[in-house]
Write a structure and sequence with these properties.
seven-stranded mixed beta sheet; globular; four-stranded antiparallel beta sheet
Length: about 120
Amino acid sequence: QAQLEESGGGLVQAGGSLRLSCAAPGRTLSNRNRGWFRQAPGKEREIVATIGWRDTRYYGDSMKGRVTISSDNAKNTVYLQMNNLKPEDTGVYYCAADIQVASMSAKYWGRGTQVTVAS
């Protein structure tokens, strides 16, 4: 059972932008390391970005410079703004919380939202 709810995925042309949102109904996770993973077809899951409780941010190499992670703790929501999207960004994007970057693991997960970038 997913504990987090993603939204904002979809189909976009190369060079376009998308904003993903992740809500945590009934949970207060603002003091946890939260963020986004993605899994492209045929590839392993990787971290896109994380944000800690002191707003410390980590960006994975694959999308660094093209994504911004932010949070609205009053809404218990995390956002991922993705710009200049490329076809290789196509995949399922998962929201997660209580992330351990070193082990690529998390305690809480969403079901994932599909992002498709057309060339």
